[in-house]
Amino acid sequence: MSAPPPAPPPEAEVIRLARLARGLSPEAAAARTPVRLGGGRWRHIEQGYTRRIPFTPTAAPAKTLAHMANVVGVRPEQLDGAGRGDAAEILREIKRQEAAEQPGPGPADPRVQMALDILTDLPPRVREEVLRRLSPEDRKRIDEG
Asked: What pTM does this model have?
């Protein structure tokens, strides 16, 4: 009889729940990260191990975990709470750089951010359909409305 798998580390559970809440598969989430990461490796990090017999524990390096967290909307405070302050610090820097890259002279209109958040939270297939459906006529109607 084989031993049961080890429990995933706290940060892995935070990532897994956030990914599920966004409706993303490990492959889709991994494809959105700027670091080299595949769906299989994403799964290993969420599970906390790479092999079944014997179970080989695995944990994400801080940089990888920070980018994973950014993709699924985990906040730095959540990583701090899971005991991964190293990744939380990198995630704060990712967020700072993203904010600095925002176009425009001042803070973005919060309604724009809300619309982007809604689009981001849609399942990929639905989001693609919404973007595809924005014809020139739709855009004109939106501009006039």
From this structure: 0.69
- Give me the amino acid identity at 53: I
Q: Which long-range contacts (CB under 8 A, 24 or more apart) does 90-95 make?
A: 90/62, 90/63, 90/65, 90/66, 91/66, 94/66, 94/67, 94/70, 95/70
pLDDT tens series, the chain, 145 aa: 577 888 899 999 999 999 999 999 999 999 999 999 999 999 999 999 987 778 888 899 999 999 999 999 999 999 999 999 999 999 999 999 988 887 655 556 777 778 877 888 888 888 888 888 877 776 666 666 5
- AA identity, residue 114: M
